[in-house]
């Protein structure tokens, strides 16, 4: 892969919790424009890897690059600024916020954050705010939840919260989106909707790295698929290659 084709690269990532090695030297390259799947048995270290990449956990070793920029020591919001955004396996409830507010918290270019630009050019700040609101509305429409914009986020169903989480992830226009189990606990109809949304966005060029337990879902959507087991990359390949690989079968059966 050429430099420009790689949107995310990790080298020898390591993380231990006490005596437990959760991430044991993970090196991966994610190609721009792909939907890359990440599977592996429970406890394989998938979520930990996302936490390391996105800056939510401190690394014990290794490096991470986004668009060839070293983001190893950056905070999550700084990594997001470099183009990498992640969602959580369990979406956070945004206490006290409406969907609109939750969307705006995630938006970039908020010069209103500092008082100085407001004082220097109030109309610019207002224009940006209006643009952010319009953008939020467009994103919610895209995920077919435009009607929820004034709902308190505490009133949302689990499925609606998943969609808001997805929409929010796009407010910073990421180069790569990391989704941690986007259809876990979601009914089959909504799971199909989410699959359709991901496909449509990918057709428009959006790169995804997706952890998912639902095999039919991820095998239908992703190519390539990376298999993690005991903190290590067990293999990477097409869904067909992964499905028929004896090591993968053993990893799942061995537990
Ligand atoms: P997966 O997402 O593949 O199911 P995780 O990355 O959540 O696996 O967990 C990998 C291992 O690391 C598990 O044994 C888990 O118990 C452990 N682990 C994950 N996060 C923490 C943490 N914050 N503190 C202690 N142990 C953790
Ligand atoms: Mg997990």
TrEMBL record:
Q: Which SMART domains match?
A: AAA
GO annotations under biological process?
amino acid transport
Keyword annotations = Amino-acid transport, ATP-binding, Nucleotide-binding, Transport
Q: Where is the ABC transporter domain?
A: 8-255
What GO annotations for molecular function exist for this entry? ATP binding; ATP hydrolysis activity
SUPFAM superfamilies tied to this protein: P-loop containing nucleoside triphosphate hydrolases
What PROSITE patterns does this protein's entry cite?
A: ABC_TRANSPORTER_1 (PS00211), ABC_TRANSPORTER_2 (PS50893)
Pfam families in the record, alphabetically? ABC_tran, BCA_ABC_TP_C
Any one annotated GO CC term? plasma membrane
InterPro entries given for it?
Answer: AAA+_ATPase, ABC_AA/LPS_Transport, ABC_transporter-like_ATP-bd, ABC_transporter-like_CS, BCA_ABC_TP_C, P-loop_NTPase
Which PANTHER family has this protein been placed in? CONSERVED COMPONENT OF ABC TRANSPORTER FOR NATURAL AMINO ACIDS (PTHR45772:SF9), CONSERVED COMPONENT OF ABC TRANSPORTER FOR NATURAL AMINO ACIDS-RELATED (PTHR45772)
User: Function, please?
Assistant: Probable component of a branched-chain amino-acid transport system.
- Family of the protein in this entry: Belongs to the ABC transporter superfamily.
Protein name (record): Probable branched-chain amino acid transport ATP-binding protein LivG
Q: Which organism is it from?
A: Halogeometricum borinquense (strain ATCC 700274 / DSM 11551 / JCM 10706 / KCTC 4070 / PR3)
* Lineage of origin: Archaea, Methanobacteriati, Methanobacteriota, Stenosarchaea group, Halobacteria
